[in-house]
Amino acid sequence: IIIFIVLGFVYGFSGYKEPVPIYPKFNYSDVIFSSIDKHISPILNTGYIMPQYKFILEVIMFQIIFIAASVCVCLMISTILKNNSAAVGACIILQGMFIILTNLRNAGSSIVPIFFSYGDAAEIINRQFIMKTGACYMDVYKAALILIIWIIASVIISKFVFNKKDILI
């Protein structure tokens, strides 16, 4: 957001109704799609154009959900570990692993896109995520649902562990 505002002041803000292309939906295919080297094929007439203001609002909302999920996972780790410095170290290591696994999402594993590919909200909204990972089953709503499940699971585990610690003390 900050970069968008700074660049907007430097180079001028573009029109808020400028179009943003949304790539078509994809299906699994037996044939390799040559330009992206994945076993997917585009579904014709499913791409569309979205106004830039709507795209930016969706990106911001998705980033808020992603940040909340990251914070909840870090809080869960800090409640599970008894030492605060170990919790901080574990969260830093987890964020480093997250960055590494996000860059390895093209490695062919079907589990990596499910857990570690939500950092770039624009890729998920405009469906570049599917072209990079080959995960045809993923869309914006499923990605948001997975992040909300991460939030709920982390809060429940944290509450259970915290109540258990509170009883033991």
TrEMBL record:
Spans through the membrane: 55-80, 86-104, 140-162
Stated name of the protein: ABC transporter permease
Lineage of the organism: Bacteria, Bacillati, Bacillota, Clostridia, Eubacteriales
Keywords linked to the UniProt accession: Membrane, Transmembrane, Transmembrane helix
Superkingdom: Bacteria
